[in-house]
Amino acid sequence: MEDTATAAPHVMVLPFPAQGHVTPLMELSHRLVDRGFQVTFVTTEPIHGLLLAGGGAALPDGIRLVSVPDGLADGDDRRDISRFVDALFGCVPGYVEQLIRETKVRWLVGDVNMGMCFEAARKLGVRVAAVFPASAACLGTLFKVPQLIEDGFFDDKGFPKRHGSFELAAGMPPLCPSQMPWSIDGPAEGQEVGYRMVSRNTQAARDHAEIIVCNSFRDAEAAAFQLFPSILPVGPLFADAELRKPVGQLLPEDTGCLRWLDAQPHRSVVYLAFGSFTIFDPRQFQELALGLELTGRPFLWVVRPDFTAGDLSEAWFDEFKDRVAGKGMVVSWCSQQQVLAHRAVACFVSHCGWNSTMEGVRNGVPFLCWPYFVDQFANRDYICDIWRTGLAVSPGEDGVVTKEELSGKVEKVIGDEGIAERARVLGDAAHKCLGEGGSSRENFDRLVDLLRE
């Protein structure tokens, strides 16, 4: 029988089933294994399959992958966010409760966005540590929602009642009521479902979590951490300092792009990646491609198989790739952390998802911001207005970012020595927070000590 006095402490880690959530919680799991923990990493069945296909078999001995149903059938559209989260609410908590009984863990380390499982864990005597994979400003704003409703910014279903933007505090991104974390395109009932999920999960974190940590660092969000001292930064998260273990990827990575980068001049390459959700219509896609060609610079562009909605001519795209062959490289997915750490990268054209933002910041890379939805607009404001480490594209009156706009802004970002220096300084601050005596390191130590109790 195992000696419980010497057995490695065992925790269950539960991310929301999406790329931007799986990656940071897997990175956190690697850091816990480094400290002697055993981790049961729980994802939904579709995500579980993608993790295994993406290299899950190479995980360290301390991490065990386990799956639960997500409440949808194989052919259902998991990009229908409202239907997806509704199914998760109804299905996942019961399966997680069953897993907790079977694994006999002492702690659930759960994504705030899976807060619907926290009450069940507490009823079984399992303690809860909450992890927020986005910014402290975003989570703090969610904490303030009841007050914002009372102040007349939203109704009780999350719909905006005021126009324009407002600030919670100086040094935090301004908030636009129509660009909240539950704001999604589609029917009104979808927004309501999103608002209910966000509200319940946030309240569950406040009610049941003994500690709340986030993937950020103190220098990046000083005002937010001052306003919300209960949120502890432990980031920027990464699997290991040498980037030998790009983890939590749900799509196969093209490693050939790293060899291609090796052949490029220092600080010459425009890197473009828009995360796992962004979709462009064919016209915008073509303008983007032509804008890259117009720069005349080497570029590495991540184009997922589902990146466009509508009928983009394959022949047109093939002709484009033929024209830029040798100058540009198009891949379906890559190890972004390794790319951003590469000496050849000059700037990052990004959707401003928080993981991408932290990865760019940590490597001191200037940004050209092209946000798509939810918190990405606030992250853009951090980059452009607060940190001043990048610029943003400006769509025309028809909503399209032209090739001239993209090309011109790329040149401005790369040519701005002030942006480059501020990006370097912020990157140095991130490393300092992660180093010995740094605030993120100390907060992570605090989390580890608590999980050992």
TrEMBL record:
SUPFAM superfamilies per UniProt: UDP-Glycosyltransferase/glycogen phosphorylase
GO molecular function: transferase activity
Record keywords: Transferase
Record flagged with keyword Transferase: yes
Superkingdom: Eukaryota
UniProt xrefs under Gene3D superfamilies: Glycogen Phosphorylase B
Cross-referenced Pfam families: UDPGT
Family: Belongs to the UDP-glycosyltransferase family.
PANTHER family (alphabetical): GLUCOSYL/GLUCURONOSYL TRANSFERASES, UDP-GLYCOSYLTRANSFERASE 83A1-LIKE
Name of the protein described by the UniProt record: Glycosyltransferase
Source organism of the structure: Urochloa decumbens
